[in-house]
Input
Amino acid sequence: MMYKQLAKYYDLIYTWKDYNGEVNRLKQLIKKYKNSDGKELLDVGCGTGKHLEYLKHDFFCNGIDINFEMLEKARENVKGVVFTQADMITMDLKKKFDIILCLFSSIGHVKTYVKLEQTILNFSNHLKKGGIVIIEPWFTKSTFDVGRPGMTTYDTEDIKIARLNSTKIDNDLSILEMHYLIGERNKDIEYFVEKHELGLFEIDKFIEYMTKAGLKAEFLEDGLMKDRGLYIGIKM
Output
């Protein structure tokens, strides 16, 4: 399964990411848009829990992820947060939240428009009236840089990681083939490949599904990461 081998290296690969800065921006948006009174927060596709490290000081936090290994890492990283293994498309947590976050383009993993519509409706069903959902999308077809090779590296005395990926498009799906080389002190070099498929969802359809799910929807071009933007939805 995707991220199974990667979980223990995930945070090293993304050491460049400013989780604290992103959370400060998210808190500003929550303050601006949220109309419910509570502080119950759900992070969907929480990965290793790095956003929750900073969010837990201001909210009662829950995190879900489909991947067991990533959740195990999240439980190591963050104390005082409830983590549950669940699929965002079908989750039924028997609870409503004031804030639902789905960050770092996790929504792209639902792949199809049919599943995107199901997922957004599911988010809405887990929101209190006046609650807010913030979704950080993957790219649209026009913003996805197809054919461009990507590279990320991590380099210390004890561990070195190189990740190269190719980028392709198949209809509404972007396909990234990730090749990892990992060298650790006193260990053999590891090599493995992961294939990531993420849906390329257009803004108008996204807004349409949010509105249909009972959310007052807005797209902000100025998001957390370049060219991705943010969707804001308030439960009506």
In short: Residues 10-140+202-235 form a domain with the Rossmann fold fold (CATH 3.40.50.150).
